[in-house]
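**Protein of interest**
===
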Amino acid sequence: MASYFVCNTIFSGIMAIADDTNYYNIRKKCEGSLCYDFSNMEIFLNQKSVRDALGVWNINFASYSSTAYQAMLVDWIRNLKVGILALLEDGIKLLV
C-alpha cells in the first residue's frame, strides 16, 4: 500500500502541472469525469452475447465502480501478469 501512496503522490503532482491532460493519451485533453469516453466499451460489454460469453449473465459493466476501486487498491502496484496463465489453465474466461 505504501508504493501506491508514493506513486499516487508523484502522479498527482505531475497531473497538477499538466492540468487537463488526458493521462490515457497525453496528446489529448481530458474530457469527462474519467478523461476518456468509455461509452463504446460499455455498449460492447453490456451486450447479452458478450455477457454470456464471459459468464457474467445479469451483471452489467460499469466504467467506474468506487467499490471495485477501493477493493483493488492493495493490488495497484502488484504484477498480476503471472496469474493470468493459471486462470486460463483453470478454464476461467477473462478479458485482458
Observations:
- Residues 14 and 94 are 33 Å apart (CA to CA).
